[in-house]
Amino acid sequence: MRRGMGDSALPPSPSWSAAATMSSVQVVIADDHALVREGIARILTAAGMEVVGQASTGQEAWFLVRRLVPSVALLDAALPELSGLDVCRRVRGRCRKVAVVMLSMFDEPAWRAEAARAGAAAYVLKGDSPAALVEAVRRAARGEVLLPPAGEPALPLTAREREVVRLIADGHKLAEVAQLLSRSVATVRAHKASAMRKLGVHSTAGLTRAALDLGIVRVIPAAEAERDGHR
Fold first, then answer.
1. How far apart are CA 150 and CA 56, in angstroms?
2. So what's the pLDDT on residue 122?
3. Are residues 29 and 117 in the same domain?
4. Which of 17, 192, 211, 231 could form a disulfide with 216, with the two C-beta atoms 3.0–4.6 Å apart?
5. CA–CA gap between residue 33 and residue 25 (Å, rounded)
6. In a domain, 4, yes or no
């Protein structure tokens, strides 16, 4: 069951308050796959927690966290519309009572470091056991931080690798990137391969998604793009 903005599944405010008193730990789950959300909800409910909302996008997750103020926001790192890392930054900036647990399929230091920098309390892999997930959520709800402080730099990419990734994410072909950077195609291809290996992705689409999620590139809102175009 999906609960999001404008969705009739969202109960009125009095029901939210009543639900919050049923458990010492209330959780909002955000993942773009309904089966994943429902599976996690069953695990947390069986552990005595209260799942007070579910979201399929980053925008919905941010909306629900602000309205429900749960104990924990359990966020997929790669949500559509607004990445889980971006939602985490917003939550920790404006709803500091809410702990964030990041859920991800990426077991690379870069992702853990970015989660720590965003303010997440814990980082759970989708391949981890249900017991590990429950433990992470419970400890985050108690105010514990399970992620070590992020080191510098957060991303293990060189300046040139970041530049190559940014241009690829912007839609440029390797030959175009090579021309823009005054480098050979072979050199650009090597930088791309190195960045993909460090970020744990295996395709250009995955590299672009990682670039967005990790803040290497950002989506410019339509209104902002239109405003810039008139300058």
1. 28
2. 95
3. yes
4. 211
5. 23
6. no
93 CB-near residues (< 8 Å, 6+ apart)? 119
pLDDT of residue 205: 86
Report d(CA 109, CA 99) in Å as an integer.
Answer: 21
Side-chain half-sphere CA neighbours of 155 within 13 A: 21
Report the alpha-carbon distance of residue 109 to residue 89 in Å, rounded: 18
pLDDT greater than 80 at residue 202 = yes
CA–CA distances in Å: residue 141 to residues 14, 15, 41, 230: 23, 22, 16, 47
User: Are 81 and 165 members of one domain?
Assistant: no
Tokens of 76: 């997929």
Residues 149, 61, 213, 170, CA torsion sign = negative
Cβ-count burial of 98 within 10 angstroms (0-12 exposed, 13-18 middle, 19+ buried)? buried
Percent over 90 (pLDDT), the chain: 49
Residue 75, amino acid: L
Q: How far apart are CA 59 and CA 156, in angstroms?
A: 28
Q: Cβ distance 117 to 150 under 8 Å? A: yes
Per-residue pLDDT, 24: 85
